[in-house]
Design brief:
It is built from 19 helices and 11 strands. It has helices spanning about 1-20, 30-35, 55-65, 100, 120-125, 140-145, 150-155, 180-185, 205-230, 240-245, 250-255, 290-300, 315-320, 320-335, 340-345, 360-365, 365-370, 410-415, 425-430; strands at about 50, 70-75, 110, 130-135, 160-165, 235-240, 275-280, 285, 350-355, 375-380, 380-385. The strands form 3 sheets. Strands 3-2-1-4-5-6 form a 6-stranded parallel sheet, with helices on both faces. The chain has a 3-stranded antiparallel sheet with strand order 7-8-9, covered by helices on one side. It is elongated and about 85 Å long. The N and C termini lie far apart (about 55 Å). About 30% of the residues are buried.
């Protein structure tokens, strides 16, 4: 039975691979079947990505694809590279390599090409790739002959993914986009921050990250579709649309009930109690999403009298009378330290957890136990620690395999091994400042 299953999978894999334009090194499509064998557990092994992105959203997307086994060729500007390489301090000790750059650029090869001078080099690379990802302002690449319609003529089966601030149409299309601006225009900052305080940005670039995740999913779907149709396509993702789509219940409340949103701090508009409570030495977050969980909280806090109070019987009533209830609960939580509460709540049937500093996060016994932090050897800075992929597969591999590259680390290697450029050609390109 196992042999029959493997035979069926192999036959299907061969049919899919022959339909696409993927290549591994100089292998032809038949040879690729053996390079990407059934025993290879990386889902995207054999898929090659041409990565023309910088900063966060695009690099985050391509890093996820790299974790899944795709070969990612990160195209960078000679001399400067990805802007986030200079986003510091902090830098790795004794270097000018920013720690910021390292967080979204593992599993990639850095290839330095001047897009204006090296268009033909890009064309040659595109013919060897399955996916192109870019995050230029709409129209910028088209001016250089690298827009979707230009590329489609060269590689009709290529999946071309654009990440922009506002999309390619609409009055904002030509504007550059940053996470904090999309979070402002898209309402996230309006609903983030203390109740009576100013709007706040989230501590990390959540709009960028969400856009990168949407793009990653869209690329995976397009690869699956191409296996069926043998066609490439243009995918467009943008920060503002992603941010508005991420408003979830807040958007639904306004669109269907006309309810304008406000800032709630750590409280929840529709669930009480659900917030970070100040303790004797910190903060502890507790969420009771059901009446049964609320009763359990009262039992643990030794406040049984509140269970019979009509004002707090149901979540609807608790939301209406939140101020009275929260005043009582906040006073109670201030009686003990975080450590004491963690002991009291150890077996609680509702979600809870301390508000950790970043140091406490990485010292957390659970984080240590699951091995989420990976250590890799970097070409110039020595050992580098990275937060590895958060997804675990029962069969497939999803790993941090390669450390973040130095600028132009793989230029000659890629042009020589993938494109079969001669040493003389590469030297001429370097001399003419087309590559670095």
């Amino acid at each position: 039975m196992d042999k029959l299953i493997i035979s069926c999978i192999t036959t299907y894999a061969r049919s899919c691979l022959l339909k696409c334009n993927c290549k591994v090194g100089s292998f032809n499509r038949e040879q690729r079947l053996y390079a990407t064998s059934i025993s290879d557990r990386f889902p995207l092994s054999g898929v090659r990505i041409l990565d023309l992105t910088r900063i966060v959203a695009g690099p985050y997307c391509t890093m996820i694809l790299g974790d899944l086994g795709a070969e990612v060729l990160k195209i960078e500007r000679p001399g400067t590279g990805d802007e986030s390489r200079k986003w510091g301090p902090p830098f790795f000790e004794g270097t000018q390599e920013s720690t910021y750059f390292s967080c979204v650029n593992r599993n990639k090869k850095s290839v330095c090409i001047d897009l204006k001078k090296g268009r033909q080099v890009i064309y040659d690379l595109i013919k060897e790739c399955d996916v192109l990802v870019e995050n230029y302002v709409p129209g910028k690449l088209k001016e250089m002959g690298l827009g979707y319609e230009d590329i489609r003529k060269i590689a009709p089966k290529l999946i071309y993914c654009s990440l922009t601030g506002y999309g390619s149409t609409g009055p904002y299309a030509s504007k550059p986009g940053y996470d904090v601006i999309a979070a402002s225009v898209g309402g996230l900052m309006h609903i983030t921050g203390p109740k009576d305080g100013p709007p706040c940005k989230v501590g990390v670039a959540m709009t960028d990250l969400a856009t990168g995740l949407y793009a990653h999913g869209a690329i995976m779907a397009a690869l699956l579709q191409r296996a069926k149709t043998n066609e490439g396509q243009w995918i467009q993702c943008d920060l503002l649309s992603t941010q508005v789509a991420s408003l979830i219940n807040v958007a639904s409340n306004y669109l269907n009930a006309g309810k304008e949103a406000t800032r709630w701090g750590s409280e929840h508009e529709s669930i009480v109690p659900y917030e970070s409570f100040p303790t004797k030495d910190g903060y502890l977050t507790v969420g009771t999403g059901s009446d049964a969980q609320f009763i359990a909280l009262l039992r643990i806090l030794e406040l049984p009298q509140l269970a019979d109070n009509k004002k707090f019987k149901t979540n609807t009533e608790r939301v209406k009378n939140r101020e009275e209830l929260l005043h009582i609960l906040r006073s109670e939580f201030k009686r003990k330290t975080n450590k004491e509460w963690m002991e009291v709540l150890a077996d609680a049937p509702f979600p809870w957890g301390p508000v950790n500093s970043i140091g406490q996060v990485f010292d957390d016994p659970h984080i240590k136990n699951i091995g989420l932090v990976k250590e890799m050897e970097h070409a110039t800075v020595g050992k580098v620690k990275l937060v590895g992929p958060p997804v675990i597969y029962s069969y497939a591999q999803n790993e941090a395999r390669l450390p973040p590259p130095t600028l132009g680390q793989h230029t000659s290697e890629v042009l020589k091994e993938l494109l079969k450029y001669s040493e003389a050609t590469i030297k001429n390109l370097i001399h003419d400042k087309v590559i670095q």
